[in-house]
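HUMAN:
Sorry, I am quite new to this. Are you able to go through these amino acid letters and fold codes? The numbers rather puzzle me.
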Amino acid sequence: MSLRPLAAAALALAGTAGFTALSTPSSAADPAESTFAVIGDVPYGASQIAAFPSWIQQINADPDVTSVIHLGDIKNGSSLCSDDYFALIRQDFDTFADPFVYTPGDNEWTDCHRTNNGAYNPLERLTKVRQVFFDHPGTTMGQQPFAVQSQARQGYPENVLYHRADLTFVAANVPGSDNGLQPWTGLGYTSPTPAQRQAVKERTELDIAELHQAFKQAEASGDRGVVVLQQADMFDPTYTPTANDIAAFAPWIQALIDETNHFDGPVYLFNGDSHAYNTDHPLAAGSSWLQTYAPYGVHGSADDLTRITVDGSSNNKDWLKVTVAPPGVTPLLSWTRVPYTS
């Protein structure tokens, strides 16, 4: 049964805190053991656009999967950010048989200022992304949507929070390109505009507020772990970053450190952006990333945060199958890369 009417009612009755009310999940929607799929940076280019429907059907055919997550970048960085393309991808998304959660990436809004992307105003494209992909605030996409909490009242329907399988999931709009602060050079700017700076500041504040809320609810619910979903790879091992690449992530990273240390359980950060599968502990004591971010105000460490990057772009030959262990079994999450068959 569709939960959209329930979610709409929750949105109408919600308080002023910015989140919709969260429905009480049924046992069928919140099993003790669960499996979810994670993809990102897909489809990239004509061949992947053509193959994407069959890849969706492959995920649909896996009887273990109970929900699907897309970590952003629904196009490559050198193609048009057009309304028609967004509509095409939304049609694909609607064919996911399971509940489908999507968090935006930089290629579909932040980087749309580029001439070969159409020289759009990125904030206008983000508005369009919200209209196309978040037209039913308070629910996921997919053919069996479930209710989520969202920041729709504050204009951020893409920021969602939900509980499944004794886990708290939080999806936040944290894109690449220095969290959206890199200059809109395609529009003739060599530094961030005042409107751009204000938008990044507001979004980051709301992202952090959502993160705090997620951990607060996880603790109150007795959840076993927290799963953070975002597009940006803030710890990209493929290049040496400069301030123009990473400085704007610092407040979000500090919030991740603080909340991970206060939470009695593991924290998992799933991201895309850098296109190559990786798993590490970038905020653990002794990590070089702590030294990299120290000049931007990041302090402390978080040993219990595990980061997972999914394959994407030309490496997008598989999807990530993530299994939640039954109570009392460790590790809490395990995963495997499942090759696409077509």
User: Anything to note?
Assistant: The chain has one domain: 4-339. Residues 1-17, 20-29 have pLDDT under 50 and may be disordered. The two ends are 32 Å apart (CA to CA). The longest helix spans residues 194-221.
